[in-house]
Amino acid sequence: MAGTYIARIVDVHGEGIRLEPTTGSEVPERPNDVNLLAMAIALALGAAAYEHHPEPRNPEVQTLEALLTGEATMPWRGPADAGTPSPHVVCERSGSGLPRCRVQSGPGTPA
After folding, report:
1. What is the pLDDT of residues 32-64, one digit of tens each?
2. What is residue 56's three-state secondary structure?
3. Where does the record place the region Disordered (predicted)?
């Protein structure tokens, strides 16, 4: 797994959210690491009250790699009371080497 992954969460009306990785974010290349990072992001989004968008996912376009690089939208929508002006998902490698992610108000400020 790559060291750090930070991405701005952008609401794409009618489609879901898009992750816009910040400069220096590392997107893993190995399939297992891609899956682990995507799962950690999904868990962080769920903990932050994001939920699945009602539109079905298009598996031809919405691959995990495309979602992590910001090339596709994710079928999620933000919480109804989304007052955070610029939410980010921040993922860092834990001591065990697995990614730990959280949603916060900015790229470097815990919410």
Report:
1. 999 999 999 999 999 999 988 777 777 777 889
2. coil
3. 74-111
Inter-residue contact 78 to 17 (CB < 8 Å)? yes
* E strands present in 32-98: 51-52, 73-74, 76-77, 88-93
Domain definitions of the chain by residue range? 7-80
Rg (CA), the chain: 13
Predicted confidence band at 30 (pLDDT cuts at 50, 70, 90)? very high
Q: Report the alpha-carbon distance of residue 21 to residue 29 in Å, rounded.
A: 15
DSSP string, 17-60: EEEEEPTT-----SHHHHHHHHHHHHHHHHHTT-EE-SSPP-TT
